[in-house]
Amino acid sequence: MQRMKILQKNHKTLRAKAIDLPLEDIGSKKIQTLLNNMKKVLDDCPDGAALAAPQIGVSLRIFVVSQKIFMDDEGLIPDSSKDLVFINPELKKISKRHKKLEEGCLSVRGYFGEIERAEKATVEAYNEFGQKFSYAGSGLMAQIFQHELDHLDGILFIDKAKNLAKVDF
Predict the structure, then answer these.
(1) Percent of the chain scored above 90 by pLDDT?
(2) 162, 130 Cβ separation under 8 angstroms
(3) Cα–Cα distances in angstroms (integers) from residue 141 to residues 7, 16, 97, in the given order
């Protein structure tokens, strides 16, 4: 299997609005392979919190949130944590309170900027088994939801960020 690469900011797939995945396709081998590959790519990025399908060239409304975001202060991930899959996600609710946050992106490597995001967000989606669920998050999780939903709409964080700065790794 060829290693999937994360597309960078100038790729046209990142600027297109992703399409909904037909629900009957969720259990297909093709989609399950895609989800597993997304998890592997994300796991290989030590600084990656989440990954949207368009970032690897697949224009479907899917994103995965890494279990790494549940890591404790000692760098341990609780046994109950797992990568979270969001298929055809919809933002159902955001808080009126917003906060300015530092943000980066795996598709805009080496750049960080200040972006305003809602402090809380609720997303409704389907998981990798085709079950509908709702997930409410605050802080980092709310930021991830908004960032990944932007990806699915063809928006990169640099379109909204202020004080963009290049950082050497």
Answers:
(1) 83
(2) no
(3) 23, 24, 15
Active-site residue, selected from the candidate residues 90, 119, 124, 148:
148
Burial 23-43 (b: 16+ CB within 10 A, else e): eeebeeeebeebbebbbebbe
The length of the chain, given as a count of residues? 169
- The DSSP H or E segment spanning 29 is helix 29-43
Kind of pairing between the strands at 111-118 and 162-166: antiparallel
pLDDT in tens, 2-30: 457 899 998 999 999 999 999 999 999 99
Going by CATH, does the domain composed of 12-166 fall within 2.60.40.10?
A: no
Please report, for the chain, the start and end positions of each structural domain, with discontinuous segments joined by +: 12-166
pLDDT digits (tens, 9 = 90+) for 46-80: 889 999 999 999 999 999 999 887 766 666 666 66
Residue 116 bears catalytic tag: no
